[in-house]
């Protein structure tokens, strides 16, 4: 039984080729082939989105926040939205001192009654439960800062089951494969 899925991307930093590869991959997972029905972009590369979506024809319900290297001031720095019965708090993360702790990020999410936090900025994939709050960082589509390499995430909601987070890697040849974190 499949549920609804949300594609989670961050930190493209001009890596339009990698982003285009991911969106082409995601196009095959839109209905009726699969169940990606939404996408979240967590900043640092907002201007890359229009090029990549035009090149691939990828279209779904986007949620977008700006990062510290984005200058589209009309795009919010945080966003709260509901998806499949969960409340999401999303941010790039640069304003939350992520390199020392996640306390500020967790506090902001709790202030917004979130169940799930989506954040970027560190370029490192991350998925942990913090006292009932799921923290998810998809890593970076094109400029990783970990041995895992370039990555993104897909979250799946199936009614009556916990949210499932999958992380996908992109190799130098553009091949996409499931990662084990």
What labels would you give this structure?
single chain; 181 residues; alpha/beta; Purple Acid Phosphatase, chain A, domain 2; six-stranded mixed β-sheet; five-stranded mixed β-sheet; 3 helices; 11 strands; 18% helix; 34% strand; globular
Q: Can you walk through the features of this model?
A:
The chain has helices at 16-27, 46-56, 103-111; strands at residues 4-9, 36-41, 61-64, 78-83, 86-91, 116-119, 125-130, 133-138, 151-157, 164-170, 176-179. The chain is α/β, with parallel strands linked by helices and 181 residues long. The chain has one domain (4-179): Purple Acid Phosphatase, chain A, domain 2. A hairpin with a 2-residue loop joins strand 4 (78-83) and strand 5. The chain is globular. The protein is built from 3 helices and 11 strands; from the N terminus they run E-H-E-H-E-E-E-H-E-E-E-E-E-E. The strands form 2 sheets. The chain has a 6-stranded mixed β-sheet with strand order 3-2-1-9-10-11. Strands 4-5-6-8-7 form a 5-stranded mixed β-sheet, with helices on one face.
Mean pLDDT: 93
**CATH architecture classification:** 4-Layer Sandwich
CATH topology annotation: Purple Acid Phosphatase, chain A, domain 2
**How much β-strand is present in the residues?**
25-35%
Structural class: alpha/beta
N- to C-terminal distance: 24 Å
Helical fraction equals: 10-25%
Model regions low in confidence, pLDDT < 50 over at least 5 residues: none
Indicate the CATH class.
Alpha Beta
CATH homologous superfamily title: Metallo-dependent phosphatases
Number of H- or I-type helical stretches: 3
Shape: globular
Sheet with the most strands: spatial strand order: 3-2-1-9-10-11
Main sheet record: 6 strands, mixed
Radius of gyration: 15 Å
Topology as a string of helices (H) and strands (E): EHEHEEEHEEEEEE
Domain tally = 1
Write down how many β-strands occur, each being a DSSP E stretch of 2 or more residues: 11
């Amino acid at each position: 039984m499949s549920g609804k899925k949300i594609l989670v991307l961050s930190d493209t930093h001009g890596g339009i080729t990698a982003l285009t590869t991911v969106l082409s991959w995601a196009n095959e997972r839109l209905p009726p082939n699969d169940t990606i029905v939404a996408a979240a972009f967590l900043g640092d590369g907002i201007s890359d989105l229009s090029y990549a979506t035009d090149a691939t024809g990828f279209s779904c319900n986007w949620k977008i926040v700006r990062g510290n290297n984005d200058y589209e001031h009309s795009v919010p720095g945080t966003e709260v939205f509901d998806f499949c019965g969960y409340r999401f708090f999303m941010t790039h993360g640069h304003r939350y001192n992520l390199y020392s702790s996640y306390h500020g990020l967790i506090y902001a999410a709790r202030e917004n009654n979130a169940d799930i936090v989506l954040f970027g900025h560190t370029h490192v994939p991350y998925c942990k439960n913090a006292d009932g709050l799921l923290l998810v960082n998809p890593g970076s589509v094109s400029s990783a800062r970990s041995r895992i390499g370039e990555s993104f995430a897909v979250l799946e909601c199936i009614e009556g089951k916990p949210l499932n987070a999958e992380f996908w890697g992109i190799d130098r040849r553009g091949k996409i494969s499931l990662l084990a974190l």
